[in-house]
Amino acid sequence: MTLCLNYAIKYSLGMIFLIVEDSRPTRNLIKSYVKDITHNRYDDFLEAENGETALQLLHTQRIDFIFLDLNLSSEMTGLDLLKELRKTDSLKHLPIVMVSSETDKVNVIEALKHGANDFIAKPIDQKAFAERVLKIIKSMP
Question: 86, 66, 74: which is closest to 49 by C-alpha?
């Protein structure tokens, strides 16, 4: 996939992606797909298995983009974390893509209503993932 020159210049120093997902194989898959999209060896990835760890990282690290599982196996669900992030001034600007096997319309609408930039269903289709994530990245200031 060819990236536009503006994207290459804008992100030549790399982006930091936070993957909030309780499944290691899914975290690895998302990481692999992002690397295929950006072709950027300077990108970095932080991982959190639950919402609480994600919040700690978000308050202590620079994060540029978040992939967030709707159903985390912790007290804080992905939707809870999304709501918290959208209430926090220093974090509400971050692009958030929800990733979930829970794809009924109610879950999708709820996530989008609370500020998710997009919702990607599992199993993740690589081509659709690339198109949707690139669209969000290119629209970032």
Answer: 74
